């Protein structure tokens, strides 16, 4: 039997020959996830959509349905499931069906960004039905009929995806939610130009549409990467007081509204329609609990009652007056305080910054 060939020893103390030298490390791409893993954030401040009058044009933009519900982040962690609201409140216990559906996903860790909704018999999101399912403002009920339409994926199996483009994140999201038809579903992109989609959305009674730039990373706040275009203008405003009803005892006649403007607030008018008699009574009870002698904004009028700006009203309206007041406003419901809109973002009134 022959002897094995002799391998000459290498003196590791000497400079190796060129053929044995290791290559220089390749710089890590800015969107490449850190390895072996990225720490999972406790909470991600959401990316918010700016209000726009018309859909943007060009191949860089993709479109989705604008769902009318509660913005939620679904955290799948080793210790279990967490559901956080836009303002960071833990509402895990309020969406049992979404928790159960998230547990079936074939992932170890994950953060989904989406909207919890209740659908009507025609498949449209119904914000009033969702509020009723939760027991109203401050209610303690569980919305077992609510489903989550997920539209972004921020973290997956140890990788922070926020540096990736929307197209890259969507590709991974579609893989995670492929075939899911339960309480966690994919919010699909619509293959149409913006104007055509907006027209169809309005004809079918939807609230509007969302436009997203496909090449942008996930950035918290309102950087302009996402736009919202509504069929009927509606926004969320701080309630700063009310006018008592002279017709119904123990009820309100109208709500006084304000929006953020820099470090302060600006009065944007009142809303006196859209709530039923029992809602007007319930609102007065809520507001009387936070009455104040110091108004948050300057409002002219008699018999007005001022409150601390702690509640937020969702209001539909036709347009803005030249003085920066809401025109033909109608009350839609109460929302989370984090939803208050910034006045200067969408009101072009001269002199308002």
UniProtKB/TrEMBL annotation:
Annotated keywords: Ligase
E.C. code: 6.5.1.1
Source domain of life: Bacteria
Region Disordered, annotated ranges: 1-37
GO biological process per UniProt: DNA recombination; DNA repair
Reaction equations catalysed: ATP + (deoxyribonucleotide)n-3'-hydroxyl + 5'-phospho-(deoxyribonucleotide)m = (deoxyribonucleotide)n+m + AMP + diphosphate
Gene Ontology MF: a single term: DNA ligase (ATP) activity
PROSITE patterns in the cross-refs: DNA_LIGASE_A3
Name by which UniProt lists this protein: DNA ligase (ATP)
NCBIfam families: NHEJ_ligase_lig
Native source organism of the sequence: Borborobacter arsenicus
Domain ATP-dependent DNA ligase family profile, residue spans: 139-230
Family: Belongs to the ATP-dependent DNA ligase family.
